[in-house]
Amino acid sequence: MIARARLIGVVGFLIAGATGLISSTQTWLLVSLSDGAAEPLAVAGASAVVLLAPLSLTALALGAALSIVGRILRPVFGVIGAVLGIALAILTAPIAIQAPVSAVSAEVAAVTGIRGESAIAELVAGITATTWPAITLVAAVLMAAAGIWVLATARLWPEGGRRYQSERAERRRSGGPLDAIDSWDDLSRGGDPTT
């Protein structure tokens, strides 16, 4: 399990980030207005939660960078990922649970020209949530869990570069044949690879 701990963290961030990014373009809420409009107003995830796309892109970047980052930055990335997931869950949960008028007020104001929370609340006859807020809430929980996982297991991950460095050092100590890369490195440092 520890051998795959890095992979679990990376995949967790990538899935959560991709889900959030896709969700930001989907319809989250359908708003029925009391002005007699035949079609309900569709509100996308990016309108309902303005920070959805930036937080999701940050999670994708964290996942990609986590695959190559060193030992010192791993816990930092874990903390950042956990904070991002918690923030996204806090922003998404009210919409997934009760679909408040505040989540649609910007979109309703843009369509109708009416401003003010109380005026918009009077204009809104009903709000129906799609499954996307719930999906995004699950992705936010996954993002926070991936951050906590990285924070808990990062010190146990194997170092990728040392495996190759120890093989070279062993060949040098044993006097064994060096490959072309080792010879070129010796030449670059001013040594004579022929001796």
Automatic annotation (TrEMBL):
<feature type="transmembrane region" description="Helical">
    <location>
        <begin position="41"/>
        <end position="69"/>
    </location>
</feature>
<dbReference type="Pfam" id="PF09534">
    <property type="entry name" value="Trp_oprn_chp"/>
</dbReference>
<feature type="transmembrane region" description="Helical">
    <location>
        <begin position="7"/>
        <end position="29"/>
    </location>
</feature>
<dbReference type="InterPro" id="IPR019051">
    <property type="entry name" value="Trp_biosyn_TM_oprn/chp"/>
</dbReference>
<feature type="region of interest" description="Disordered">
    <location>
        <begin position="166"/>
        <end position="195"/>
    </location>
</feature>
<protein>
    <submittedName>
        <fullName>Trp biosynthesis-associated membrane protein</fullName>
    </submittedName>
</protein>
<keyword id="KW-0472">Membrane</keyword>
<feature type="transmembrane region" description="Helical">
    <location>
        <begin position="132"/>
        <end position="154"/>
    </location>
</feature>
<keyword id="KW-0812">Transmembrane</keyword>
<feature type="transmembrane region" description="Helical">
    <location>
        <begin position="76"/>
        <end position="97"/>
    </location>
</feature>
<keyword id="KW-1133">Transmembrane helix</keyword>
